[in-house]
Amino acid sequence: MPFSPRTKLLDWQPFRGEVNVRETLISLLGEAASTLSRAGFAEPRRLARRLVARALDLTPAELLGHPEQVLDEQQTSRFRLALDRMAGREPLSRILGRREFWSLEFELSPDTLDPRPETETVVEAVLRRVSDRRAPFRLLDLGAGTGCILLALLSELPAATGIGVDIVAGAMITARRNAAAIGLAKRAHFFVGDWGAALTGGFEVIVSNPPYIASAALANLPCEVALYDPCLALDGGADGLGAYRSLVRDLPRLLKPGAVFVSEVGLGQASAVAAILQASGLAIESCERDLAGIRRCVVARAL
Ligand SMILES: C[S@@+](CC[C@H](N)C(=O)[O-])C[C@H]1O[C@@H](n2cnc3c(N)ncnc32)[C@H](O)[C@@H]1O
To answer: Which of 207, 271, 280, 288 has the most CB atoms within 10 Å of its CB?
Structure first.
């Protein structure tokens, strides 16, 4: 059966406690808000609404329009298991096994980073530089994870094709499933590899969001990140820049003359990454800010 994110929660173990068959949406909302408040969450009511809606696959209108709706035992069990996990600080996206990025839904796995909204800055930076969206570009995503950057770009560029590479085989399995679920399997191909080492050139666009946290800082990450995002997706070596130094080696060979390379960078890393790219022979075009005003990606061109 093809993956359907909506079937994900049905894999859960059934709740074995006492179930009140008269549970209503409004009673679950109240229960979630007080459990999350006791667990120390800010804005427990807003989170409760999100949890109930996402756990039960309800739209906001369904959630708020019929508060007295009675739920069946399976829905109640599903909700309670999600609530327990959320109270234990597991991110909602991990509980649900899916995350929205660029208005597309991506399946997650323990092998993939949970895509972050600021990574959309990379997608925007590429699209701003495309004068003809119907051109048959060849794209490459180094460290593709769920495939979110490549698939978001392909969803906007109908004649483009793309390759995603990641060193983790499990991530590439998930990326292929995401490509199929979004309807892009014919134009997106995902391979296991060490950055671009195994590839030959000819790309108009290369993107990357490599691991960029300094190894010593990993211990200080919030548990929502440290416990659920894979270390290989986070650890950027002693100064956080190790992955950039490795992957730039392939760029001059892989980029067509004039082609663009766009890379996400961590807080305060833009200048250092720009220097690494410049030293490899690329021309720096700009550093672009995310919605929080942080310099989030570096844009460079092959000469
Ligand atoms: C920060 S995550 C980004 C994932 C995805 N592109 C995103 O934005 O959500 C970095 C990715 O680089 C991959 N990676 C780490 N070292 C790699 C290497 N040597 N070659 C290819 N991919 C690598 C990790 O497995 C991880 O999926």
So the answer is: 207
Question: C-alpha distances in angstroms, 104 versus 45, 117, 207, 227, 259?
Answer: 26, 12, 18, 25, 26
Domain end call among 65, 96, 127: 96
Distance CA 295, CA 287 (A): 6
pLDDT digits (tens, 9 = 90+) for 226-249: 999 999 999 999 999 999 999 999
User: Are 264 and 119 contacting, i.e. CB atoms less than 8 angstroms apart?
Assistant: yes
For residues 172 and 33, give the distance between their C-alpha atoms in angstroms, rounded to a whole number. 37
Specify the pTM.
0.90
Judge if 157 and 132 occupy the same domain: yes
Does 29 share its domain with 178?
A: no
pLDDT at res. 13: 44
Residue 69: the pLDDT is 87
Structural domain that includes position 73: 5-96
CA 139/CA 156 separation, integer angstroms: 12
Q: For residues 71 and 192, state if they share a domain.
A: no
Distance from Cα 142 to the centre of ligand 1, integer Å: 7
Do residues 136 and 276 share a domain?
A: yes
Burial of residue 41 (number of CB atoms within 10 Å: 0-12, 13-18, 19+): middle
DSSP-based three-state secondary structure for 168: coil
For residue 65, give both structure tokens: 């329009």
**Amino acid making up residue 138:** R
Residues 126 and 275 in one domain: yes
* Domain identity same for 125 and 167: yes
Predicted local confidence at residue 39, as pLDDT: 94
Domain tally, the chain: 2
Q: Measure 214 CA to ligand 1 centroid, in angstroms.
A: 15
Which residues form ligand 1's pocket by a CB distance below 6 Å? 113, 115, 119, 143-146, 148-149, 165-168, 171, 194-195, 209-211, 232-233
Q: Whose CA is nearest to atom 4 of ligand 1?
A: 145
Domain boundary among 96, 126, 147: 96
81 and 179 in a single domain? The answer is: no
